[in-house]
């Protein structure tokens, strides 16, 4: 199957032209699956520690509007996260959209940073702590949303559930790109799964830029199959999910807990 990761500017979907340009680019990839960054359809809210319920609601509405148009990508499976309201709780919820059954809610982000440029715990609440898989069109998919990539026990648990893809939608800074790649390679090996990640690029808050560098990493030894760059902001590669099944039988995945 063909899978796609990307890096896109914060606020890319503010206008119809941005949506049309990106969706045309994705259609041309003729991919089976695309992973988007973390909460991709609104400007990054957590750049300030002053949370605003009105802005949150606006972001919820923006995500609902653009998710309703995901069929325009021409891609059977689209994965990302979205801001939601669960009763009185604001949360960051993973989703899988597919052309056969529509939108499926997935894992809700549990580990929340709270620091300059990434005041997430100030903006929204953590999920229930469940790291359930999603099955779609024969694929078993696990989520580690951004900061969750550093909590490797969940990658190990996903291995025991036989995932094929470990998806890591991110919003991470330019200053720590190398560190995040290390985390992605490690998680791919621990999970025995292809690790896919997409990120924003360009400005965040004053003096801080997003780091871009989407990746596709293979499951056996954590080799990087490809990275996005500002000049090549969409990356599509052929992968074989059966390689993830095979990786579960080899070291270190087969070692009993």
Q: What can you tell me about this protein's structure?
A:
The protein has 257 residues and is α/β, with parallel strands linked by helices. It has a single domain, classed as 4-Layer Sandwich (Nitrilase/N-carbamoyl-D-aminoacid amidohydrolase). The protein has helices spanning 16-29, 53-67, 120-123, 152-160, 177-191, 242-247, and strands at residues 2-9, 33-35, 77-86, 89-98, 102-108, 134-136, 139-143, 165-169, 194-203, 209-211, 215-217, 224-227, 234-238. Strands 1, 2, 3, 4, 5, 6, 7, 8, 9, 10, 11, 12 and 13 form a 13-stranded mixed β-sheet that branches. β3 and β4 form a beta hairpin. The two termini are 32 Å apart. The model has no long low-confidence stretch (mean pLDDT 97).
Summarize the structure.
With 257 residues, the protein is α/β, with parallel strands linked by helices. The protein has helices at 16-29, 53-67, 120-123, 152-160, 177-191, 242-247, and strands spanning 2-9, 33-35, 77-86, 89-98, 102-108, 134-136, 139-143, 165-169, 194-203, 209-211, 215-217, 224-227, 234-238.
Question: Which short descriptors sum up this protein?
Answer:
single chain; 257 residues; alpha/beta; Nitrilase/N-carbamoyl-D-aminoacid amidohydrolase; 13-stranded mixed β-sheet; globular
């Amino acid at each position: 199957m063909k899978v796609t990761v990307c890096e896109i500017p914060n606020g890319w979907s503010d206008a119809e032209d941005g949506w049309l340009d990106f969706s045309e680019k994705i259609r041309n990839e003729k991919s089976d699956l695309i992973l988007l960054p973390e909460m991709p359809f609104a400007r990054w809210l957590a750049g300030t520690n002053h949370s605003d319920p009105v802005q949150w609601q606006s972001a919820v509405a923006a995500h609902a509007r653009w998710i309703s148009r995901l069929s325009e990508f021409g891609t059977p499976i689209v994965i990302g996260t979205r801001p939601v309201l669960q009763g009185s709780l604001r949360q960051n919820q993973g989703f899988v959209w597919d052309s056969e059954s529509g939108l499926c809610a997935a894992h809700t982000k549990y580990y929340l940073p709270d620091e300059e440029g990434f005041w997430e715990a100030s903006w929204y609440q953590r999920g229930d702590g469940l790291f359930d898989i999603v099955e779609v069109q024969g694929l078993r998919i696990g989520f580690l949303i951004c900061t969750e990539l550093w909590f490797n026990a969940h990658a190990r648990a996903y291995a025991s559930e036989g995932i094929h893809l470990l998806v890591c939608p991110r919003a991470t800074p330019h200053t720590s790109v190398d560190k995040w790649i290390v985390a992605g390679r490690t998680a791919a090996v621990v999970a025995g799964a292809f690790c896919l990640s997409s990120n924003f690029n360009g400005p965040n808050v004053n003096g801080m830029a997003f780091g871009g560098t989407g990746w596709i990493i293979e499951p056996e030894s954590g080799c990087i199959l490809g990275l996005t760059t500002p000049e090549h902001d969409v990356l599509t590669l052929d992968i074989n999910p059966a390689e993830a099944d095979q990786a579960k039988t080899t070291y270190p995945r087969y070692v009993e807990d």
